[in-house]
Amino acid sequence: MDDAMNSPLVEASGLTRNYASKPGVVAGVIDLSLRVERGEFVVIQGASGSGKSTLLLMLGALLRAERGTLRIDGVELTRLSAVERSGYRARSVGFVFQLFHLVPYLSVHRNVLSGLPSGSAVELSEADRWIDALGLTERRDANPATLSAGERQRVALARALVKRPPLILADEPTGNLDPDNAARVLEHLDQYRRSGGTVVLVTHGSEANRYATQRLRLEAGRWAIPSAFPSFNDSVS
Ligand SMILES: Nc1ncnc2c1ncn2[C@@H]1O[C@H](COP(=O)(O)OP(=O)(O)OP(=O)(O)O)[C@@H](O)[C@H]1O
Ligand SMILES: [Mg+2]
Predict the structure, then answer these.
(1) Ligand 1 pocket, residue 20 CB under 6 Å
(2) Would the pTM count as exceeding 0.90?
(3) Which of 15-24, 44-53, 95-104, 217-226 tops mean pLDDT?
(4) What pLDDT score does 100 carry?
(5) d(CA 47, CA 45)
(6) Sign of the C-alpha dihedral, residues 74, 77, 81, 83?
(7) In CATH, what number is assigned to the domain containing residue 167?
(8) Atom 9 in ligand 1: which residue has the minimum CA distance?
């Protein structure tokens, strides 16, 4: 293994992001540091407005940090141009969101294919492999509007996984699912992790705790003091 593969997948230091809004500046996240090794399943919890999505958007190069450094898979994101950032996103990150964000006028199959960056060396047949793996074979040519919520989220997962990204960023991916479908999505994420992937998941809830290799809690844009949340072992249900 070369040095890049031995170094942590994510190394963030002093990440800060504020938002300008009508009454004044709103703090998104403040002076956050984070280290994620390859093969981890990081679960970040926190109340609404604590900065979870802000952090995830920065990890996905969808939002710029105002201060701090952020190195992911050997690339310093804060130094990239807009074009380089979209290249990083296309290559290195799979996103899964609470509201699925499927393309409504494309079939399941075409939604999954849309996860492949242009010029990708991944075979197009991989889309069908993931459709089968996620239990969507019968719905391959269906429109997302005709799918259940659980099916929609599995399409979003297939779309994220098809390019085999080193990192999956999941923002409340089970927030609109019943417990069975939520468990199924988490199992698939864990399977991806066990096959060498890395997951960073943010959530209000506790259902992902049992998969976590690292648990963190945000409070008003900062990490909660360590004694304020239970250790991983205390919380395994
Ligand atoms: N585009 C924006 N403009 C202004 N303020 C914003 C914007 N996005 C987020 N904020 C503010 O930044 C803070 C952190 O928001 P963030 O969306 O990161 O929280 P969150 O932990 O993801 O919350 P939730 O659990 O409700 O999704 C909040 O006070 C929020 O109101
Ligand atoms: Mg959020």
Answers:
(1) no
(2) yes
(3) 44-53
(4) 86
(5) 7
(6) positive
(7) 3.40.50.300
(8) 28
Closest ligand 1 atom to the C-alpha of 204? 25
Secondary structure of the chain as H, E, C letters: CCHHHHCCCEEEEEEEEEEEECCEEEEEEEEEEEEECCCCEEEEEECCCCCHHHHHHHHCCCCCCCEEEEEECCEEHHHCCHHHHHHHHHHHEEEEECCCCCCCCCCHHHHHHCCCCCCCCCCCHHHHHHHHHCCCHHHCCCCHHHCCHHHHHHHHHHHHHCCCCCEEEEECCCCCCCHHHHHHHHHHHHHHHHCCCEEEEEECCCCCHHHCCEEEEEECCEECCHHHCCCHHHHCC
pLDDT tens digit sequence for 208-231: 999 999 999 999 999 997 544 444
Domain holding 31, by residue range, is 3-235
User: Is 205 close to ligand 1, i.e. is its CB under 6 Å away?
Assistant: no
Buried b (16+ CB within 10 A) or exposed e, 82-117: eeebeebbbebbbbbbbebebeeeebbbbbbbebbb
Place of tokens 């900062």: 222
Task: Report how many domains make up the chain.
Answer: 1
Q: How confident is the model at residue 25 (pLDDT cuts 50, 70, 90)?
A: confident
